[in-house]
Amino acid sequence: xxxxxxxxxxxxxxxxxxxxxxxxxxxxxxxxxxxxxxxxxxxxxxxxxxxxxxxxxxxxxxxxxxxxxxxxxxxxxxxxxxxxxxxxxxxxxxxxxxxxxxxxxxxx
Length: 108
Prior knowledge:
The chain is α+β, with helices and mostly antiparallel strands and 108 residues long. The chain contains three helices and six strands, in the order ββαββββαα. A six-stranded antiparallel sheet has the order 2-1-3-4-5-6, with helices on one face. A hairpin with a 6-residue loop joins strand 5 and strand 6. It is globular, with a radius of gyration of 13 Å.
């Protein structure tokens, strides 16, 4: 992970957000996934400039590196909004040790 790591969000509509990168701002994006009238736009991401990302759905999160052949850490069903926000905070803060310590399930 680089020292000058940049973090951004991608909202459910695919719009990249580079301002106000905070757990609170991400919580608003996560809450928007609960719109039961829209079954198509159900993913929000947090990305960094080292090509790592966490991708959240309504009940799970995937952690991986986006580059070709990049590492896929796995997926995790989070218990509630608080756990999702804790995962988001670890990623935003660059605490990959805490992220990797979670019970990720390999897709393979």
